[in-house]
Write a structure and sequence with these properties.
Blueprint (H helix, E strand, L loop, with lengths): L1 H6 L1 E2 L15 H20 L6 H26 L3 H14 L9 E2 L2 H20 L3 H15 L17 H14 L3 H14 L4 H13 L3 H14 L4 H13 L10 H9 L17 H8 L19 E2 L30 H20 L17
Parallel strand pairs: 1-3
Antiparallel strand pairs: 2-3
Keywords: TPR repeat
Length: 376
């Protein structure tokens, strides 16, 4: 409890102290200075102690949330998707504002955890072909992340493990629900958020190809190819679409597929994938669109770090069931300058994070194939 109490911030008001007036002698300033410090000390001593019942209530909620999170992750790894969804629902219920004491104002980790929970519920629904339910959960994730209303399309960069994967996944779900206009909008938003990532162009190409706009799909795949000529996903999709358009005859060698095979032997099982309607799409997405998977960044829940204790008596006019807090954001930053240092640092961060994800073997998608992901 001592650790938890030190983690929670006190919200209190310092007494109004008039500024010291300038004087010609230090003797006249000392009494006012002493008075100033004494008032500050009195304010600190008047700070209310956090009740033990409050701490115990938050700790109890934290324990329940932790149990549901671990159970959900366990079910994901065992591919028991409906059970995972059930535990995630219970996790969200345990984090409801009604469950907390009215004096509790959650920290940013709580908002981040809510985003990840909605996202993984959406993924679980996609695994069992419940795409309408999946689209609703991705919408909840996007709204809980509180992204900008209009995507920046003039150079904005975003970390690819939050809002960008949610938009990409929802585009996939919208295609399966025959909401093509919405799917194109989400795919385009993903492109705007992470324009240097070849995966997002593959997502939009898959949307175009799903509605038989294969030449438009090729335009996006060519953009992806310019970013990375060894991008396995791009090579698989472009080879399949060119073949369906008659650009590669049966007697000719498919250069894109040959190159993909050299880069990743497993790619040979997906040479017929060209749109979201292919039954191999769930496995294809997991294996070749790694940067568009949002993995668990929170496995140990701590509801005390960054949280605040706001006593009722201190804020009589504040509506405590609607606490003011900074929303969790996806990492979208204002348009960066043209200087090479700023943009290169962002790209370096994204590359490092992508490699870390590939190297991980604790994701929900089974064994990772590090050779299937090409570093760009």
């Amino acid at each position: 409890m001592a650790v938890a109490q030190s983690s929670i911030q006190h919200h209190h008001y310092e007494p109004a102290v008039e500024p010291m007036e300038p004087s010609t002698t230090s003797a006249t300033a000392l009494p006012k200075q002493a008075s100033f410090h004494s008032q500050l000390q009195s304010a600190k001593e008047a700070r209310p102690a956090i009740p033990s019942a409050f701490l115990a209530s938050v700790a109890n909620i934290q324990a329940k949330a932790q149990a549901h999170l671990l159970a959900a992750i366990t079910c994901e790894r065992a591919k028991r998707w409906f059970q995972a969804i059930e535990h995630y629902r219970k996790l969200l219920n345990s984090l409801s504002k009604k469950k907390f004491p009215p004096e509790y104002v959650p920290g940013p980790q709580c908002s981040k955890l809510v985003f990840e929970t909605y996202y993984h519920i959406g993924v679980a629904f996609q695994k069992v072909d419940y795409h309408r339910d999946a689209s609703e959960e991705f919408t909840n994730a996007i709204e809980s992340g509180n992204p900008p209303k209009v995507a920046c399309n003039i150079g904005c960069a975003s970390i690819p493990f939050y809002q960008t994967p949610a938009f990409a996944r929802r585009a996939y779900a919208y295609v399966k629900c025959d909401k093509i206009k919405e799917a194109i909008g989400d795919a385009t938003r993903a492109v705007h958020l992470d324009p240097s990532n070849p995966d997002v162009y593959c997502i939009r190409a898959l949307v175009w190809s799903s509605v038989k706009e294969k030449r438009r799909a090729l335009l996006d795949l060519n953009l992806s190819f310019r970013l990375n000529a060894s991008h396995v996903c791009t090579l698989i999709l472009r080879g399949a679409i060119l073949k369906s358009l008659g650009g590669v005859s049966a007697s000719e060698q498919n250069k894109d597929h040959e190159k993909a095979l050299k880069l990743c032997r497993e790619s040979m099982h997906f040479f017929d994938v060209e749109d979201f309607h292919n039954p191999k799409m769930p496995s294809f997405y997991d294996k070749f669109l790694w940067s568009l998977n949002a993995f668990h960044t929170i496995t140990e829940i701590n509801l005390f770090v960054g949280a605040s204790f706001v006593p009722n008596s201190k804020q009589p006019n504040k509506v405590l069931d609607e606490p003011e807090r900074k929303p969790f954001r996806c990492g979208c930053v204002p348009p960066y300058s043209s200087s090479s240092s700023s943009s290169s640092n962002l790209l370096l961060w994204r590359k490092t994070s992508a490699r870390a994800v590939v190297a991980s073997t604790t994701g929900i998608n089974g064994n990772n194939c590090i050779n299937c992901y090409i570093k760009y």
